[in-house]
Amino acid sequence: MTDGKQWFGHPRGLATLFFTEMWERFSYYGMRAILLLYMVAPATSGGLGLTTERGASIYGWYTMGVYAMSIPGGWIADKFLGLYRSVLLGGVIIALGHFSMASSSQQMFFVGLILIVIGTGLLKPNVSGIVGTLYDRDDKRRDAGFSIFYMGINLGAFISPLICGPLAQRVNWHWGFAAAGFGMTIGVIQYVLGRRHIAEGLARHAAERTEEARVEAEHRVTFTPQEWRRISVIGILFVFSMLFWGAFEQAGSSLNLFADRLTRLDFAGINFPSSTFQSVQPMFVIIFSPIFALLWLRLGSREPSSPTKFAFGLLLVGLSFLLLVPGAAIAQKYGIRVSPMWLIGVYLLQTWGELCLSPVGLSMVTKLSPPKIVGLMMGVWFLSLALGNKLGGYAAGFFDRLPLPTLFGAVAATTLAAGLILVTLVKPIKRLMGGVH
Ligand code: PHE
Questions:
Q1: 229 alpha carbon to ligand 1 midpoint, in Å?
Q2: 156: CA distance to ligand 1 center in Å?
Q3: pLDDT, tens only, 333-349
Q4: Ligand 1 center to residue 359 CA distance, Å?
Q5: Ligand 1: centre distance to CA 25 (Å)
Q6: What does each C-alpha distance from 398 to 9, 61, 328, 349, 403 come to in angstroms?
Q7: According to the model, what pLDDT value does residue 2 have?
Q8: DSSP 8-state class, residue 264
Q9: Contact, 158 vs 286, CB < 8 A?
């Protein structure tokens, strides 16, 4: 497809989008790794000197905004700008946002956050949308293409805390923000230079949309009861998804603070900044996604159904917080920093949870919703992520106000209970799905 050149057996445009999203996620996660730490650091060490409660609340609103904006971002691409220009404009706005935060003015800090929210809303849903245009409807490489793309996401998320983190925590916070901006700038340049590789897919997509609109105008289609049943499954999973991300996305907030304040920051004699822990989870995703893909393949007909995998995701994230309860208890009881192995164990379990739930969530949405409203339903999926992030920020706000074993225990109890409830719902959900797996 596209201009005929291949990249690992995939259309060459996949490489362009892989690196665009890699750099965008580089900037997002590099900045996120230092965001809360910067907000709560005392003014004497260059931070904003906010209370943990206030910092976590801003963190919650910001991370919620980033994903909630995907809904208008997708809509703007559909109605006005098209996919290509939305991604381009989004990337430029994101870079400007990070550079605003590189200045030491407090106002520019907040302007920066708002710009990143708007820019990510324009870029994130639409860059994935363009990946979809690279393949014909029945191209068997489509799923593999998305898996490779997910690797790009995690490669960016893995590298950036190792660069933005030490710059911010060891040199100057604002250098960390600037580094995130540079990353996004490289991504934008690379995207524009590679645009010819995605042109053909985009043109085909535009033609398909025109055709769709024509067919739609001819037959006013309504929902059938079967479709409504499937949509209701998305509604049920929405709630569980929100709870999952509410726990999972505390990586950048409560767990980041746990690393900063209560974890020993050296390994084999080397001392490292606390933000380094933010690289652990994406590293595990890179290691384990091929293993999980192989596992599902090996299991063949015994592969767990989508709702079962969803329940596994919740149970694993619940176990990860349960694991941290004794770690937090030891740290707070004796007033010491505990071994880094606690957090590494937590992130390992969370990654397994993510690999059970996240790919399933996305593909369920595409499989269960009537084609006409796939875009809308995708927005609903992003909204569950947005609300989950808000929930995570809310929980992190208790970091200084509750004993940590209580806080982590509450997160564990909520997600484990949700996972167990979902286990009992697997059968009825499968019935509602009516033949889709
Ligand atoms: N790590 C994922 C990413 O940054 C988290 C995520 C999953 C975000 C699904 C959006 C949608 O892409």
A1: 27
A2: 12
A3: 999 999 999 999 999 99
A4: 10
A5: 9
A6: 49, 15, 14, 23, 9
A7: 45
A8: -
A9: yes
Atom from ligand 1 closest to the CA of residue 154: 1
* Angstrom distance (rounded) from CA 129 to CA 126: 5
Tokens standing for 406? 């209580």
User: Which numbered atom of ligand 1 lies nearest the CA of 282?
Assistant: 1
Q: Tens of pLDDT along 356-396?
A: 999 888 778 877 887 777 777 888 889 999 999 999 999 99
**Region 13-433: CATH code:** 1.20.1250.20
Please state, in angstroms and rounded to a whole number, the distance separating the CA atoms of residues 373 and 203.
Answer: 21
Rounded Cα–Cα distance for residues 30 and 33 (Å): 5
Question: What is the distance in A from the centroid of ligand 1 to the CA of 211?
Answer: 31
- CA Rg value for the chain: 22
Q: Is 263 helix (H, G, I), strand (E, B) or coil?
A: strand
Residue pointed to by tokens 């384990």 = 288
Q: Say how far apart CA 174 and CA 168 lie, in whole Å.
A: 6
Phi, psi at residue 268, to the nearest 5°? Answer: 50, 45
Report the predicted TM-score, pTM, of the whole model to 2 decimal places.
Answer: 0.95
Atom of ligand 1 nearest to the CA of 67: 10
Query: In this structure, what token pair is assigned to residue 265?
Result: 């920051």
Q: Which of 69, 153, 159, 279 to mutate to test the pocket of ligand 1 (most atoms within 8 A of CB)?
A: 153
Question: Could you tell me if the CB of 251 is within 6 A of ligand 1?
Answer: no
Give the number of the atom of ligand 1 that is nearest the alpha carbon of residue 70.
10
Residue 23: left if φ>0, alpha if ψ -120 to 50, beta else—which one? alpha
pLDDT at 3: 54
Q: Which atom of ligand 1 is nearest to the CA of 29?
A: 4
Q: How far is the CA of 332 from the centre of ligand 1 (A)?
A: 32
Supply 310's token pair: 């969803």
Structural domain boundaries of the chain?
13-433
Residue pair 338/263 in contact (Cβ under 8 Å)? The answer is yes
Rounded to the nearest whole angstrom, what is the distance from the C-alpha of residue 437 to the centroid of ligand 1? 22
Task: Answer whether 25 contacts ligand 1 (Cβ < 6 A).
Answer: yes
Question: Which atom belonging to ligand 1 lies closest to the Cα atom of 285?
Answer: 1
Give the pair of three-digit tokens for residue 385. 């992520």
Pairwise CA distance, residues 250 & 257, whole Å: 10
Write out the two tokens for 229. Answer: 């049943």
Residues 6+ apart with CB under 8 A from 222: none
Q: What is the pLDDT of residues 213-223, one digit of tens each?
A: 787 777 666 78
Residue 198: name the closest of 124, 276, 129, 108 by CA: 129
Residue nearest to atom 2 of ligand 1 (CA): 153
Task: Please tell me the distance between residue 353's alpha carbon and the centre of ligand 1 in angstroms.
Answer: 13
